């Protein structure tokens, strides 16, 4: 028995191997949503267990000065076997240095590296906190640009204190002549406040 099969030929305008993507907006939205989800998960992980950077900005400046790279390119540093200092860079790569040579260079660079305004404020703030503790005082909000604040003892206003190019200064009123001394403790004593006595 003979069987006939009917086939239809594709029109000449039909192109084989041409892919039509009708769902492109959906795929773009899905990719954007995935990126947002990844960022959210990363943010949440950082909030739960923040990674602490063992190097300060000053440490990076010192290391960058020693090995002649941008401070931002220094990822971390460690000592191996008590002999070799390794510096890991952000872009990849590690540099080995002799520990004694590196320690000598750190001391040399620290002596010549100027203090940043942030480092200055942190140093002054630490000194102020120690002096306030010694005298039983507390201070108001610090004006970080001029490094000045108000001092209080038992809720009573005592005076103003600050540090400028002349050094530590104080005055009992908002306007008046600054009295200058070499340390925060010395200028607080100029206000007539006596050191707190332990009972």
Principal-axes shape call: flat
Largest sheet features: 5 strands, antiparallel
Structural class: alpha+beta
**How many DSSP-defined strands?**
8
Distance between the termini: 121 Å
Q: Name the strands of the widest sheet in spatial order.
A: 4-5-6-7-8
- DSSP helical segment count: 5
Poorly predicted spans: none
Give the DSSP E fraction (strand runs of 2 or more residues): 15-25%
What percentage of residues falls in helices of 4 or more residues? 25-40%
Quick check: average pLDDT?
A: 82
How do the helices and strands follow one another from N- to C-terminus? HHEEEHHEEEEEH
Radius of gyration: 33 Å
Please explain how this structure is put together.
This protein is 38% helix and 22% strand. By secondary structure, the chain is an alpha+beta fold. The strands form two sheets. The chain has a five-stranded antiparallel beta sheet with strand order 4-5-6-7-8, covered by helices on one side. The protein has a three-stranded antiparallel beta sheet with strand order 1-2-3. Helix 2 (57-67) packs across helix 3 (99-112). The mean pLDDT is 82.
Write the layout of secondary structure elements.
Elements: H1 24-48, H2 57-67, E1 74-80, E2 84-89, E3 94-98, H3 99-112, H4 117-135, E4 138-139, E5 148-153, E6 156-164, E7 167-171, E8 179-181, H5 184-190
Antiparallel strand pairs: 1-2, 2-3, 4-5, 5-6, 6-7, 7-8
Helix pairs in contact: 2-3
């Amino acid at each position: 028995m003979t069987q006939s099969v009917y086939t239809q030929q594709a029109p000449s305008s039909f192109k084989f191997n041409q892919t039509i993507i009708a769902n492109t907006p959906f795929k773009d939205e899905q990719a954007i949503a995935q990126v947002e989800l990844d960022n959210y998960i990363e943010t949440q992980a950082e909030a739960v267990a923040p990674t602490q950077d063992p190097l300060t900005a000053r440490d990076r400046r010192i290391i960058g000065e020693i090995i002649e790279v941008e401070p931002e390119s220094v990822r971390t540093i460690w000592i191996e076997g008590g002999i070799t200092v390794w510096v890991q860079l952000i872009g990849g790569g590690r540099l080995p240095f002799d520990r004694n040579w590196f320690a000598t260079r750190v001391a040399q660079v620290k002596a010549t590296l100027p203090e940043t305004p942030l480092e200055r404020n942190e140093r002054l703030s630490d000194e102020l906190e120690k002096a306030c503790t010694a005298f039983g005082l507390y201070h108001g909000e610090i004006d970080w640009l001029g490094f000045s604040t108000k001092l209080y003892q038992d809720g009573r206003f005592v005076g103003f204190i600050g540090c400028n190019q002349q050094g530590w200064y104080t005055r009992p009123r908002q306007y008046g002549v600054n009295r200058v001394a070499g340390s925060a403790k010395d200028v607080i004593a100029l206000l007539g406040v006596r050191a707190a006595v332990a009972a």
